[in-house]
Design brief:
With 482 residues, the chain is of the alpha/beta class. It has two domains: 242 residues, Rossmann fold (3-Layer(aba) Sandwich), CATH 3.40.50; 212 residues, 3-Layer(aba) Sandwich (Rossmann fold). It is 29% helix and 28% strand. The protein has 13 helices and 26 strands. Helix 1 runs parallel beside helix 2. The longest helix has 19 residues. The chain is elongated, with a radius of gyration of 24 Å. Belongs to the CobB/CbiA family. InterPro entries: CbiA/CobB_synth, Class_I_gatase-like, CobQ/CobB/MinD/ParA_Nub-bd_dom, GATase_3, P-loop_NTPase.
Length: 482
């Protein structure tokens, strides 16, 4: 629990939401974040929900790491403490919502953007797609303003407007029938500044020219939205209550010896929560960035973290880099602790099938993966730990999320899973987390704030491997989390 108020700290903030996904809130969030940053403000950007791609673009727009906030993954006390930790060091916060404003896990709207806005006491700007609609927008806005108590719907931004007459009727209708101000109206854009793909915006790792994108977005928003008024509305947020953190800290004291954990970060794999990396460092690990796409040799490591990403778009390059594939296979056989999420798991399979071709992968697991046109698993997950492994204690329950277009094929009866899905899809038969030696690989993504012992156990396992290789030339025994 969180106890004890420290002090009140001004922290202007604004939440950008819409009626649905694809309403334009990401484009507007990026543009406002970039414009405020260009004005000299130190902006802390947040993305509501489990999302890597939008958060990465927000990071680029603000010039520093964006963070995720999610009422399913994090407790309310954790959200408040983490958010308030940036008050005093940043000038304002921009929070990008997800899906529709009130859309959550159930009819009560649990874990919705509106719930997060209430937790943060943040004013909300509603981005409204005005395609083929005028006066009806007033009814929509009025309904949103009255739908939930204690929601500060502070303004509306019209999007996809067809012309001056369309904008004028829509604006005057909202201003006549509601008390919610219209802060601006964006025209229809001929070209989408950032292309989209199956998981939303295309990744910044695969699309160059970010500076030009931000300048173009910034100009459109600057010319059509009252940016100064948005800033003023952000300033109406109440003082942020900075609290003393009595949640279990990630750090558990000084490490005995430094363990080195390799983190693959390249075009193929780059889905990492910054807080996960920070948690590993807080436990005493030294992180080194590695690539599966280049021929460079790796330094000595005691653990390996393979995040998610788009291995399918780099499948040919991954496949032809035989040295890297063999290196990872050899390390797995030697008992190196390896934690792999989604795309990382796909790399550890025998092969990856994409667009009619099969590509050889590392072969740690005797399975194949195939990429489909529709999602094979999407949403929050909850899983019980059913088998001993280096990262989680048997009997524990973890929460996280999954979003994968690939499916695990050709599983053998000998396949060992450590997770039984209580919510979510997983790999097969509602199980996830394949095990081999000290390797755990699955479709589940976790966040260090919701699975607080993950970093502790990862670094502990890396330390055990480190001690073993100092004393022996043979494979490290299987490591079991206590």
């Amino acid at each position: 629990m969180i106890n004890g108020l420290l002090h009140q700290q001004s922290f202007p903030r604004i939440t950008i939401s819409g009626l649905r996904g694809g309403s334009g809130k990401t484009i507007i969030s990026l543009a406002l974040t970039w414009l405020f940053t260009q004005q000299g403000f130190k902006v802390k950007a947040f993305k509501k929900g489990p999302d890597y791609i939008d958060a990465k673009w927000l990071s680029l727009a603000s010039g520093q790491h964006a963070s995720n906030l999610d009422p399913f993954l994090f407790s309310t006390s954790r959200i408040k403490f983490f958010f308030s930790s940036f008050a005093g060091t940043h000038d304002l916060a921009v929070i990008e919502g997800n899906r529709g404003l009130f859309d959550g896990m159930d009819t009560r709207g649990s874990c919705s953007t509106s719930e997060l806005a209430r937790i943060l006491e943040s004013p909300v700007l509603l981005v409204l797609d005005c395609t083929k609609v005028t006066r009806t927008t007033a009814a929509i806005v009025q309904g949103c303003a009255m739908f939930e108590e204690n929601l500060d719907l502070a303004g509306v931004i019209l999007n996809q407007t067809a012309g001056a007459r369309h904008r004028d009727i829509t604006r005057r209708s909202i201003e006549k029938y509601t008390d919610v101000p219209v802060l601006g109206a964006l025209p229809k854009l001929k070209d989408t500044p950032i292309p989209e793909r199956h998981m939303g915006l295309i990744s910044s790792q695969e699309y160059q020219g970010q500076d030009e994108i931000f300048r173009a977005l910034g100009k459109v928003v600057q010319d059509n939205i009252d940016v100064e008024l948005v800033l003023n509305i952000a300033g109406t947020a109440p003082a942020c209550t900075k609290t003393q953190n009595h949640v279990q800290e990630v750090s558990s004291g000084p490490p005995k010896e430094e363990a080195v954990i390799g983190v693959v970060r390249d075009r193929a794999l780059w889905f990492y929560y910054q807080e996960n990396l920070d948690a590993l460092r807080q436990q005493g690990a030294k992180l080194v960035e590695l690539s599966l796409l280049t021929p460079e040799d790796w330094p000595r490591i005691h653990g390996l973290y393979l995040g998610g990403g788009f291995p399918e778009t780099s499948a040919r390059e991954l496949s032809v880099n035989v040295a890297a594939r063999q290196k990872v296979k050899d390390l797995a056989d030697q008992g190196l602790p390896i934690y792999a999420e989604c795309g990382g798991f796909m790399y550890l399979a025998e092969s990856l099938h994409y667009e009619g071709e099969d590509f050889d992968m590392a072969g740690v697991f005797n399975v194949q993966t195939r990429v489909y046109k529709k999602p094979q698993g999407h949403g929050y997950i909850r899983a019980g730990i059913i088998e001993p492994n280096p990262f989680y204690s048997t009997g524990d329950t973890i929460v996280g999320h999954e979003f994968h277009y690939s499916r695990c094929l050709s599983l053998t009866p000998e396949a060992r899973f450590c997770m039984r899905m209580e919510r979510g899809t997983g790999m097969a038969d509602y199980k996830d987390g394949l095990l081999y030696r000290n390797v755990l690989a699955g479709y589940a993504h976790v966040h260090a704030f919701s699975v607080e012992n993950w970093a502790v156990n990862f670094v502990r396992a890396a330390g055990i491997f480190r001690e073993h290789v100092q004393k022996s030339t043979g494979p490290c025994p299987d490591i079991v989390c206590k």
